[in-house]
């Protein structure tokens, strides 16, 4: 994965000071992202009807999509780091 042409001046600027822009941005976002995901999952778990198969299936599908999204985000960060 490469940086777009629009971000090239920023890449050069950060690179000359040995700063990883993606890494720095993710450190800043990581705590808030984790807290938001945690509270969202807690809310979903508190509202789910464990005896309703449709609710369980929807929760499973939603959390698996979340997992895939987070894995893709991690892969992107590792590519730039």
Describe this structure in words.
This protein has 81 residues and is an all-alpha fold. It has one domain (5-80). The protein contains three helices and no strands. The protein starts with 7 loop residues before the first helix and ends with a helix.
In a few lines, what is going on in this structure?
With 81 residues, this protein is mostly helical. It has three helices and no strands.
Number of strands: 0
Q: Radius of gyration over alpha carbons?
A: 18 Å
Count of spatially separate domains: 1
Overall body shape = elongated
Structural class given helices, strands, pairing? Answer: mainly alpha
Percent helix range: over 70%
Count the helices. How many? 3
What is the average of the pLDDT values? 84
- What low-confidence regions span 5 or more consecutive residues with pLDDT below 50? 1-6
- The rounded distance between the terminal residues' Cα atoms is 11 Å
Name the beta content range: under 5%
Strand count, sense and barrel status of the largest sheet are: none
Give helix and strand order, one letter per element, not per position: HHH
